[in-house]
Amino acid sequence: MTQANPDDITLDPKTPDEVAAWLPVAMREYEESRLEAGDSAEAADAARVLSEERFFPGGRLIDGHLLFTVRLAGEDVGWFWLGPWNGTGTEDWWIYDIRVYDEFQRRGIARIVMQRADAIARDGGAKSLGLNAFAYNVPAISLYESLGYLTAALHMRKEL
């Protein structure tokens, strides 16, 4: 598969209407990821509700956070969300979600977006940039490690 040309990748801020259409899709994917990571259905649902209430009160993204449509040569290929860890005005920023649609994966798009995240966060006053990766998502973890991310915590579990 051909690697994406970085010049063809844009991060376009989502409009309020785009956020409204995106939110149920992203929250469903978040809940499914929690289930795949081992959460019970109740815990995954509760985490989704908490996230939605915290970051999207009334369906609107909280101030200080940035949500983009990722485009390749103008075509919608995913989304990207980052912002301060605890609301606004913090030096610790977080990548809350990055998603490249399956048919566009393995082309270097996520790597380019993640590299751009450094400058976006730095411009926002960040001194650090963190993220969470579910253990089952080995390709994402490999990408993050190759970009210099280090494991800050490790949660482990086993089924009984």
TrEMBL record:
It comes from the Bacteria. Pfam families: Acetyltransf_1. CDD domains: NAT_SF. SUPFAM superfamilies: Acyl-CoA N-acyltransferases (Nat). InterPro entries: Acyl_CoA_acyltransferase, GNAT_dom. PROSITE patterns: GNAT. Residues 25-160 form the N-acetyltransferase domain. This is N-acetyltransferase domain-containing protein. It comes from Agromyces allii.
